Inverse folding.
């Protein structure tokens, strides 16, 4: 028998996923997960939080039904991964970062934005700093750095440099500077530079004082599309920033090559967008809000690769058995002009 509801289920599934996301974000805002390291009843949790007991019980039950909590009779607790990433006392607490990302990428008023079009000024200038709060993104994103990015970078650098130490390292658009901080801490003879936009630079400057690394890491503030980024770097970290050079891609790529010391390495993290802008879907949807505002800065993987090749960069290939890519999100390049 023909059953059209089977074909249409995909649309109802989308509505369900949206409800799950709404539920999860509400629980983050209420900080529910920070109270559920151990088993607790709704009544006990209501006493601790001051929330309405009846509706709190409904919320906890729904979270358990969605697999976000464990349930035992009338008691609830976090899952293992919930304790790791959603409890405020965890060193890799992601709640604040997740809420910020949701606000940053939210598809609010899409209908009106489609009808009326982008902001003409944003479209003309095409500068991410007009749309994104990079300072807040860097601050909230510090715990994210320790969920694999730092570990992957350290392992790869150890493989590339062996017993040597990178003498001078640039973290271009480094945000909080966590990646460089961990690298410099691992290599006592290394020195580093964080290059950031003036609206962000005060964050790593403050953190460097707290970390006791102000004597080994300096700050350069400016626009990397136009300003000098320094030179003689054994390693340049360029994580998630090359898209913001879409209108200056060849200029920035040349500048990166000129800034590297002979045999130096570039660590580049991009979004691996395919040529028809269909994959990865989470990236296309994640950037949609800013593109509706007027930005046009998402570069395809092939476009980036072609620009690097034009300026003498060649990819550094690791063999699969080296295990370097367990957490590594980007790729390493060397600039070799000898062919």
């Amino acid at each position: 028998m023909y059953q059209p509801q089977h074909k249409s289920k995909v649309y109802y599934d989308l509505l369900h996923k949206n409800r799950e996301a709404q539920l999860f974000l509400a629980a983050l805002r209420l900080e529910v997960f920070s109270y559920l390291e151990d088993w607790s009843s709704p009544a006990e949790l209501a006493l601790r939080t001051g929330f309405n007991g009846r509706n709190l019980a409904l919320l906890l039950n729904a979270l358990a039904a969605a697999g976000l909590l464990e349930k035992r009779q009338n008691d609830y607790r976090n899952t293992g991964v919930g304790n790791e990433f959603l409890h405020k006392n965890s060193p890799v607490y992601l709640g604040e970062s997740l809420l910020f990302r949701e606000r940053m990428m939210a598809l609010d008023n899409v209908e009106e934005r489609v009808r009326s079009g982008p902001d003409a000024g944003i479209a003309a200038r095409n500068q991410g700093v007009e749309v994104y709060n990079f300072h807040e993104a860097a601050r909230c994103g510090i715990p994210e750095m320790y969920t694999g990015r730092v570990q992957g970078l350290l392992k790869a650098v150890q493989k590339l440099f062996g017993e040597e130490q990178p003498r001078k390292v640039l973290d271009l658009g480094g945000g909080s500077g966590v990646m460089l901080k961990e690298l410099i801490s691992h290599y006592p003879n290394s020195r580093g530079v964080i290059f950031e936009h003036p609206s962000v630079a005060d964050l790593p400057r403050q953190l460097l004082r707290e970390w006791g690394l102000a004597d080994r890491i300096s700050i350069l503030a400016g626009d990397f599309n136009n300003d000098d980024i320094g030179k003689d770097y054994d390693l340049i970290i360029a994580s998630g920033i090359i898209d913001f050079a879409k209108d200056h891609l060849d200029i920035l790529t040349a500048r990166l090559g000129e800034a590297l010391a002979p045999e130096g390495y570039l660590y580049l993290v991009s979004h691996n967008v395919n040529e028809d802008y269909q994959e990865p879907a989470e990236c296309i949807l994640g950037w949609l809000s800013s593109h509706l505002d007027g930005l046009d800065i998402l570069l395809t993987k092939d476009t980036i690769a072609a620009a690097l090749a034009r300026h003498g960069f060649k990819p550094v290939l690791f063999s699969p058995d080296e295990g370097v890519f367990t957490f590594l999100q980007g790729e390493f390049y060397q600039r070799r002009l000898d062919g």
Q: What stands out?
A: The CA atoms of residues 138 and 175 lie 5 Å apart. The mean pLDDT is 93.
